[in-house]
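Study this one:
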Amino acid sequence: MPNPDDPLYAELEAALDSAENEAAKYHIRQALQIRIAEETAGKDLLSA
């Protein structure tokens, strides 16, 4: 479950709300999924 107090999660949610096209929304959703997976795994997946 995502942590709504996480500043990056909050930024991504705000970006999703203000995205102007579907391509931008797609990439923001991908970043959100990665962030949620990182929190679940307890580590930074992209730097592994």
Observations:
- The radius of gyration is 11 Å.
- Residues 22-41 form the longest helix (20 residues).
- Residues 38 and 48 are 11 Å apart (CA to CA).
